[in-house]
Prior knowledge:
- The chain is mainly α.
- The chain has one domain.
- It is 73% helix and 0% strand.
- The protein has helices at 3-11, 15-26, 32-48, 50-58, 66-70.
- The chain is globular.
Amino acid sequence: MNALKAKRNIAARSTADLCGLFERTNKKEYSQAVAVVRGLIMDEIEERNPQGFAKWLEEYAPDNKLKNYVL
């Protein structure tokens, strides 16, 4: 899947789905593809809820707590 298709697929998902996907990709072995997908997910979540996303970053909260800030 190319980056444009991945971005469209991510944009079509609910925020709850994106949070779940973000958590699941944290458990994957690191690869460039996983890093790109996680970056796209974070970009989309930040666009939808910039205040919650910023608070998650500011508090250095773990990845599995992102949903608590943006849902």
